[in-house]
Protein 1
Amino acid sequence: MSESNDSQSFDIIKESHALSGEPEQLAEFYQKWADTYDEDVSNEEYTGPEYITNYFIDILQKENNQADNQLKILDAGCGTGLVGIVLDKKGYHNLDGCDLSEEMVEVAKQTGVYQTLNGGIDINNMKSFSDAQYDATISCGVFTLGHVPPTAIKELLRITKKDGLVVVSTRSSYYDSTDFQAVCDSLEQEGQVKILDHSTGPYIAEEDAHYWAFRVC
Ligand SMILES: C[S@@+](CC[C@H](N)C(=O)[O-])C[C@H]1O[C@@H](n2cnc3c(N)ncnc32)[C@H](O)[C@@H]1O
């Protein structure tokens, strides 16, 4: 895809929300989008990565009375690495990334901020990841229309250590039209997770997102 103007950027983001959630279709879509993704989301004032990183650090500070920057963190659905870049700037260098799209991961490699990066990883079923592998998991822009179902949160919890932190964004249109809240409430009732925080914040020009912080039980 070649250089985008603002209206093309808006349109491609909308197009991504109309996908089926089928991993093959998403992988094909992001294969074509990888080269111009950063430009398109910048045209639409995508501030989610900056916001979620500050949110993550705030929660760490509140929960642990310190924001330990040695934590082993996974950026799940890292895309081109926009979250990793901000984490790196804030001093968090013990960072891995994974994404369904090999091409998005190729762009993320160029950031130089991830220790390990894996493409071809579907967060609905992260077979190659062990239980309790990470101190913290962060995921921005993945719980969005056309991408993954709310139940994908269970895999992010599984691969995160007990007492570890999972922080995700859910774009408002996704939050409003899925049962994400109900899925999280029932995980909390089952004692699998504690919802530490749920609040709204800036995300992209068109709309805000809900931001969630979970402690794995
Ligand atoms: C809107 S982008 C967000 C990327 C990055 N986190 C950011 O904030 O810029 C969504 C990303 O989710 C990835 N993705 C979509 N479905 C996925 C799945 N089932 N498993 C893993 N990644 C997925 C896409 O390949 C894409 O890189």
Protein 2
Amino acid sequence: MSAPTTTRVDPIAFAQSLIRCPSVTPEDGGTLDLLQQTLEGLGFRCTRLPFSQPGTPDVDNLYARYGAASPHFCFAGHSDVVPVGDARAWKVDPFAGEIRDGYLVGRGASDMKGAIAAFVTAVSRFLEERSDHFDGSISLLITGDEEGPAINGTRKMLKWLADHKETIDHCLIGEPTNPKFVGEMVKIGRRGSLNGVLTIEGVQGHVAYPHLADNPVPKLLTILMNFLNKKLDSGNAQFQPSNLEVTSIDTGNSATNVIPARASARFNIRYNNEHSAMMLETWLRKECDAVMSDEAERYTLDLESSGAAFVTEPGPFTELISQAVQKKTGRAPELSTSGGTSDARFIKDVCPVAEFGLLSGTMHKVEEQVPVQAIEDLADIYFNILESYYGS
Ligand SMILES: [Zn+2]
């Protein structure tokens, strides 16, 4: 490596600078330029990976790697943020990066510019101590499309990495995982998510002449109740039980004297690793066929999977993270698979992945904020992870 001009990055000042780049998805707002400039100053080779696809917003992304040898540890995250929401409910400018009563307040403070600042701080401190005898690789994989459709982001970056023979051995994502304090929870997997739309075709008619019509509503309700009455599983050591939730029922009928022509329902299944989307589809169709037994009866069931269940089994990698946390906090974190989906659903196909970041309490809310101490603590823990990953 060329000798980098290593200077330790201050995590709070850097988090403030990142927040001041307004990167409401899919805008970049200068975030990636700032990150690239800082990482190049630390000796990273940076590659911008802009992607586009018809019908989706163009997105810029950044891959930055230090070193060329293995093992290769990757910090992954996103530079985009969700919109401000009710702007009048903010007491400060969401993009000013203000510190108020020991809290950094602003859009992205916890999700996840604070964590990106902690990545960079930990790396700068590690390289300050180790750059002259470091034999491995550290990278940052930062997408501008996590809060958006997630089509032109991590998924395509991983394809680019594979095409360019860039092999990552382990990955840590900086999503906010801690309910109350930094070090409380590490996420090692997520449940899968399957969206369904069930539509029953009937025959429209007058409510006073039901024999001349075929009301689709009772059949829809029967099928939905059969869905809901099925216990999918009891959960297991890594996962809570799977659940199916009906989110909408609709006939599109505003008249009081009309039997509707069709009725449809939307539902979502959050499922654990005892199921696959295909197994669930087989079961759902069986339930539909049982009620819609008559050949003339018609239904459509559209299913869309937005990520399969996965878990990084507890082992040396999760243990290394746990110990790095414990070294800082004195307590072992809970290893959890709770919560919504994240880009870990893509990265898990490439290498073992875990998620650990800031506090989740105010993410996506107005007045998003995080204690400045939490960012400092997170940077210390990320540093501990690097030290123990590469040995002393
Ligand atoms: Zn996030």
Protein 3
Amino acid sequence: MLDNHKELFELSKKIIPGGVHSPVRGFKGLPMAPRFFERAEGAYITDVAGKDYIDFCMSFGPLILGHRDRDVEQELRHALERGWSYGACEPYSLKLAQFLVDRLPFIDQIRFVNSGTEAVMTAIRLARGYTKRSKIIKFNGCYHGHVDSMLIKAGSGLAGSADASSAGVPKGVSDDTLIVELNDIDALKACFEEHKDEIAGVFIEPLPANNGLLIQDNEYLHAVRDLCTKEKALLVFDEVISGFRVAFGGMAKVTGIKPDLVTYGKIIGGGLPVGAIGGPEHIMSELAPVGPVYQAGTLSANPLAMVGGLATLSKLSVASYDVLEANTKRIADIFRRWLAEYSDGKYANTSVIQYGSLFWMHPKTDKELKAIHEIPSNLSEAFGPMFGELLEKGIYIAPNAWEVGFASMAHDDAVIAELEKRLWS
Ligand SMILES: Cc1ncc(COP(=O)(O)O)c(C=O)c1O
């Protein structure tokens, strides 16, 4: 039974809502049971039946070095031998904070939390506390975790649902979240005009990657920055996915834009639970215990997570990003070719867009996709059969048409050759 995915899933469903601890894991809308994985190594992940897959989900992004990078593992083992939670001041978070503040010119201070959601939640409260305004702007299709005020027109596990929102979010909360379309600066201007002096912050994924991959123009992002400055609203870059992934400094570095606050998750913990919020001292010092904006956490800055994060980030050089990008280009090309050629062109209407070490398979369109309403409505129809076929071939992508694919440093020449072999097998 322990190697039978269907039986494991049936058992899970009895004692865990929907059988999963995060919705996308449940293979919703797909004809097969979710795979249960129990081991991973480099670019490969192995299920309980012993079948291995080339992993392009990579835990949804944190594992930029691949699974079980030996240096990270060694650091974690050393830390583990000394204890794994102190609930007190410790040197591990100090080291990671120093490492980051030294390298990210747009932040003076950083606060560690346990997830991307927590980071965003804190950023919302901080933006409101700092500006003494209550409304926030988010963009249609951007996902910022499952904090109430952001579960409105969100992406990720909510992408594609008829009502892209959640039950349990009081109207009073959602009324303070204003939604604007991506890539439409006039809409943002109009929103600011309608809510003059009410907007605390504009939250954006500068590389929207939770509703497909909707790459924004540099000029647009700069115009968003300028508007926020003019209207005295904080610009919050949610770099939970893009931070340390598209460059060490994330999209802030790539675009040359200085956000007022930045939120991180995923890679910053190297695969252990960490989120963070960073910004200049005059804003960050509004946080407790210095300032009046409360924030706390029993396990915040957990030593293992701090060590995992630092060990991961220390291995990322400028050259790493060149390698990641070059290899992901090759991976995207191979998928593109396979989609065009495979089985008399049965997937020929699907293409691949790639940015850095991210890629996304989507229905072919005439123009670049920049806003959620431009995504063809047949997205998930084409996805289901393709996902199943890839799974059979030992290739694992995230089990949802709107999720992006992630490559890692472990997706090297040998893995790329193996990908080609498996695709055409
Ligand atoms: C841009 C963005 N923000 C926030 C989050 C929430 O992070 P977490 O799942 O760690 O709570 C995610 C998760 O995918 C994300 O992609």
